[in-house]
Amino acid sequence: MRLPFYSEVHAAESVACLNKALSRLKDIWEEIGIPEDQRLQRTDAVKMHIKNLLDMMIAEEEGLKKRLLSSIGSCRKELSGLCEELGLPPFEDEEGLTMLQLEKEIRTRLKVMLKQKSQRMSELKTLMQQDRELCDVLCDNPYTIDPDRVPSAQQLEDYRQHIATRNKEKECRHAEFVTIKRQIVACMEDLEQMPDTSFEREVVCEDEEAFCLSTENITALKVLLSQLENQKARIETMCVSYRCRIGELWERLHVPQEERETITEHITSSRKRDMDALQTELERLEELKMKNIKSVVEIVRGEISLLWEKCFYSLQQRQAFTPYYDGISASTMSVHTYDYTAPTLKRCNNAFTEELLAAHEQEQQCLKEHYESHRELYDGVNSWQNNWSLFQELEKKATDPSRFHNRGGNLLREEKQRAELQKSLPKLERSLKSQIEQWEAEQGKEFQVNGQCFTQYVEEQWNLHHLEKEREKLERQMKKSKQTEEDMLYGTALRTPTKRRLAGTPTPGKARKVPICLAIYVTAGCRTPARGRTPRGLERNKENLSQLSGALRTMTASPHRNYSINSVASSYSEFA
Fold first, then answer.
1. Is the pLDDT at 146 greater than 50, yes or no?
2. How far apart are CA 456 and CA 433, in angstroms?
3. What is the chain's mean pLDDT, rounded?
4. Are 42 and 34 in contact (CB under 8 A)?
5. Which GO BP annotation is one of this protein's (predicted)?
6. Which DSSP helix (H) or strand (E) runs through 449?
7. Tens-digit pLDDT profile for residues 165-186
8. CA of 233: how far to CAs of 19, 224, 245, 255, 265, in Å?
């Protein structure tokens, strides 16, 4: 192997130095006069000494080489294991490196990887400590990872994500726990209840940070809160029921305001003590009710009657509740068949019992529930009934002649309102019919109004309305025919006009013209009954009356035909 240039120079200098040293030794030996054989011995000693020194140096360098090779091998082996543990690619030597460079490179890389291993193991230990703490709080199982093996970078990242997720879960559960705890404490305060079980004491009394936030505990918290809320809801429901019942009894029993004010503080809130106070008041009123059972039954009957009216109950439906008539004397039953709340009904005092009151209250409750469940329909029917009554009233006003004498614009408003009702009533009927058909399909029974199907009830009301209009029209025609008959018999009477005359009406100074035939008849000898008639005149008048009556009956039977006086008597001779 050819040495580098600088090494050759150093070698040449070493040889020159050695030769110079040997030459100097030879000169000294000559000056001293050392014999030749001793010179040879000394030369051999120098040679041996130099050789041993060089051998020793060579041995030392060979040892260094071996140590370098051993270090490189061990470091390479350790580096390979670390690369495998750390999940890194295996180490590859660079080309052209000497043993020293290679050994240094490997040792440097090994030092870096050892430091990385130490950091990973330290982080793993920290993460495992955090995981154990979270597991203690959340009562969960720890993350699955080998604590004695160096984790890879991906494993550490997954572990960090797991810890972050568990921390968020811990925060959510802790916030949920704090919220539920506050609600539980509030419910217990409202219920005036102390924690009984160890779990309740742990929730209410212990430190919040010490509570185990396991899913089982969170579920148990929700169950406990639900139970307390159900108790609170039952108490609130009972309080509402007690208040309603107390209010009814106050009104029925006419309890004075001073007595009512004793429980005013318990009317607005719904805690357990409020329920107890309301229950005590209700029991007192129930006892008072039993003492005044007759008047209470009378009041309940009045309320039942009002509910019958609201629900449009028919007579048969009302009579089906037979307890309503207990305590009513038979002499008054037939008189007040339709008026169930008539004050003149005679009650038999000995018939008012607690069972009778219970039956009435049960019937009242059933009617209330029935009305509330069908309130929309009954309100619609009631609206139709009110509009129908108003429509009939306006129809009657439309036939009243005195309505033309108003000066406040009422006629125009009434006509406008009547026109609107004529349009709105059919629409309301169609809407109610659709709702009732849907209700009947859902309930599987017929919706009745006053014991009739609503459609039949409406048709009947319209038919009665039309019949009433026909009757009024016929009465007007009869009245007009009768007036015509009287005018033909006795002459036309002068009528004093009103202050406000319609267009075309005669002035007060102008008398109505009397038909010539009637005027001749009146002036020809017609007398009033007070002055008497001759028998011949009476007979002739009877004939005329019979003819006129037949003609008027014909006019009444055919009201749409026009008749004149000539159709009754074609000439004066026939009329006379």
1. yes
2. 11
3. 75
4. yes
5. mitotic spindle midzone assembly
6. strand 448-449
7. 989 988 998 898 889 888 888 8
8. 119, 14, 18, 29, 19
Tens-digit pLDDT profile for residues 468-497: 878 878 888 888 888 888 878 776 655 554
Taking the alpha carbons at both ends of the chain, their separation in whole angstroms is 181
Q: How confident is the model at residue 273 (pLDDT cuts 50, 70, 90)?
A: confident
Confidence band of 218 (pLDDT split at 50, 70, 90): confident
Cα distance between residue 359 and residue 366, in whole Å: 11
Whether 477 and 559 have beta carbons less than 8 Å apart is answered as yes
In angstroms, the CA 372 to CA 194 distance is 40
3-state secondary structure of 320: coil
Which residue is associated with the tokens 């797991």?
162
List the Cα angle 287/291/292 in 5-degree steps: 115
CA–CA separation, 462 and 472 (whole Å): 15
CB 276 within 8 A of CB 270: no
Rounded to whole angstroms, what are the CA distances from 351 to 291, 297, 358, 519?
14, 11, 13, 77
If one counts every other C-beta atom within 10 angstroms of the C-beta of residue 180, the result is 16
Q: Is the pLDDT of residue 558 over 60?
A: no
**DSSP 8-state code for residue 312:** T
- The torsion angles phi and psi of 452, rounded to 5 degrees, stand at -125, 160
Question: Looking at residues 86-100, what average pLDDT do you find?
Answer: 79
Pick from 425, 418, 322: nearest CA to 381: 425
Q: What is the DSSP string of 364-424?
A: HHHHHHHHHHTHHHHHHHHHHHHHHHHHHHHHHHHT-GGGGG-SSSHHHHHHHHHHHHHHH
Please list, in sequence order, all residues whose beta carbon lies within 8 angstroms of the beta carbon of residue 31, skipping any fewer than 6 positions away: none
Q: What's residue 10's pLDDT?
A: 78
**Long-range contacts at 394-400 (CB < 8 A, ≥ 24 apart):** 394/418, 394/421, 395/465, 395/469, 399/472
447-453 long-range contacts, CB within 8 A, separation 24+: 447/374, 447/377, 448/312, 448/314, 448/317, 449/312, 449/381, 450/312, 450/313, 450/314, 451/313, 451/314, 451/315, 451/316, 451/317, 452/314
Which pLDDT tens digit goes with each residue over 374-407?
Answer: 787 777 777 777 777 777 777 776 666 666 665 5
Q: Cβ distance 419 to 357 under 8 Å? A: no
Chain position carrying tokens 């509570």: 211
Q: Give the residue-averaged pLDDT of 83-94.
A: 79
Q: How many residues does the chain have?
A: 576
Q: How far apart are CA 396 and CA 277, in angstroms?
A: 58
Residue 347's CB is within 10 A of a number of other CB atoms, namely 16
Q: Which of 494, 491, 487 is nearest to 510 (CA)?
A: 494
Supply the Cα-derived Rg of the chain in whole angstroms: 63
What pLDDT shows up at residue 161? 93
Contact 88, 152 (CB under 8 A): no
Q: Which residues lie below 8 Å from residue 146, measured CB to CB, with a gap of 6+?
A: none
**CA–CA distance, 411 with 405 (Å, rounded to integer):** 9
